[in-house]
Amino acid sequence: MNIKNKKLLFPVLFLSIIAVIFAFITISKRKNDISATPVENNSKINEDSIMVDFYGDGIKEVLNVIEKETGMVNMELFDLEGNKIAGLLDGLYLHNTTLFKIVKLNENSPKEYLQWDMATGPHQIQTVFLTVIGDLIQPIYSMDFEKKTMYFPFYNSRGSLIVSDANYDGLVEIIENVDEYPVNAPRLENPEIENIVREAASNHNLSEDATKGLVEIMTRENYGKGRGKKAIMAIHSFVDEEIPYFRRLPPDEYEVTAGKLVSASEEVAEEIKNDKTYEGLTTEIMIRYSDLEQDSKDFNEFVRNFWTFGRIYEFPIPDENGE
Fold it and tell me: Left, alpha or beta for 142 (phi > 0: left; psi -120 to 50: alpha)?
């Protein structure tokens, strides 16, 4: 196969990846180890049940995920005797996935939370952290007290969402990473590829707007040449209260924490470069999102809206009257 044919295969593979992602989301089954919690005669436990200790009392609960015809899911939580404890908050948009984890957000607390990762594009992931409040399974929102907004789901398009204690205070930070998309990066210019993309999009019944968006993203990404460095879009710190939440770091705190991460990535990259024992290894240098040009930020917003179908992820914080 010559180079030209290899390049022409890229858009077809790209669209195939999209199809595989949605098929994966729809038909995938969760496998969870329930052997650690032996329970007799509990009809609510099955091979797909997720065992999680939401209350931190050392006793696992049984979380069952029910897929709807739409590909979205419902969730029900039971105790070990089979009594229903909680159900999913009405209207919560979650689709089926095998990309979930049981995590702790406070290293000094035994409480567990469910990290629900949902593939939404070739390298785009949306993540919701779930807990139980009263009789409802609810997401944990990130609060921006300067803008007076609440935020979810978390978004990542570069590597994995970082869930780690970046401040060494025992409370986890959520770090969202996206592509830099340098303004001056070379664009893919190949009319033949655009024609192939349009033909493939037509076969998948994509609208004209969706086709244009796909062409625009492929042109800018240019086989990865246009994605640039890993940009730290936002950092959210966990607050462990009766109703837990994340606090989006304001600009001054963001700059300090992000600066440390950037410096560490540069040091690691330099060490790998100069030490032959690391030969063959690579690492990504991180940059602050605040250092991106507005055009790059706008394109990141466009890409996110494209792959998430324009889903709103930032809402006004309700006032004390719940309005």
Answer: beta
Task: Count Cβ neighbours within 10 Å for each residue of 82-114 and write b for 16 or more, e otherwise.
Answer: eeebbebeeebebbbbeebebebbbeeeebbbb
Q: What is the pTM of this model?
A: 0.86
Q: What share of the chain is helix, strand, coil (3-state, %, to 5)?
A: 30, 25, 40
Q: Is 13 helix (H, G, I), strand (E, B) or coil?
A: helix
DSSP conformational letter for 277: G
Element (H, E) at 117: strand 113-119
Q: Which of 104, 113, 114, 248 is nearest to 165 (CA)?
A: 104
Residues forming a β-bridge with 251:
none
Query: Do the Cβ atoms of 7 and 190 come closer than 8 Å?
Result: yes
Per-residue pLDDT reduced to its tens digit, 136-156 = 999 999 999 999 999 999 999
In whole angstroms, what is the distance from residue 16 CA to residue 122 CA? 10
Cα separation, 94 vs 91, whole angstroms: 9
Rg (CA), the chain: 22
Least confident of 2-16, 90-104, 105-119, 252-266: 2-16
pLDDT value of residue 321: 59
On the question of pLDDT at 13 being above 60, the answer is no
Q: How far apart are CA 143 and CA 168, in angstroms?
A: 21
* Residue type (1 letter), 249: L
Distance, in Å, from the CA atom of 112 to the CA atom of 131, rounded to the nearest integer, reads 8
